[in-house]
Specification:
168 residues; rod-shaped; DNA polymerase, domain 1; mainly alpha
Length: 168
Amino acid sequence: MKENIHPEFYPEAQVVCACGNSWSVGATVPMIRTDICSKCHPFFTGEQRIVDTGGQVERFMKKLERGERMLAEAERREEQKTSPELAITELDLSTRMQKVLIGAGLETVGDVLVKLDEGNEGLTNLKGFGLKSLATLKKLLRGQGFVLPGEETPEDVDKEEEPAEAAA
């Protein structure tokens, strides 16, 4: 056996917990510090408590807040997409269609929806804006999430189905 290769053994080494509890053990270092012991660990005490070692809880909370901020930002962007104040130029319409609509004084999606509420003829009577342009415009508006006048929303369809199920 080689000489002087083993560490020094301390038969009365002190273990001190962050909660203040201490006890003696045999170890190769004279003092051991721990964050959690059997007197303060939630499994042994039965209390519901989050043990934060190394700032894990704080990092988790920051990550959670960042995720919530990103969701709120995404919702805000989605709401802007379906805002009646959205300019016609923001839609992916052809430049000819944009010029015809703007020339008729329809600069926002809200203006177009009001005109559609009056009937399809209000738009198809515009010079250079025919049935194909009307179909393209309606398709784009539906794709953006707008509910066109005279159409039912998915929520309306669900509400109509519920009374029928209750009667059965």
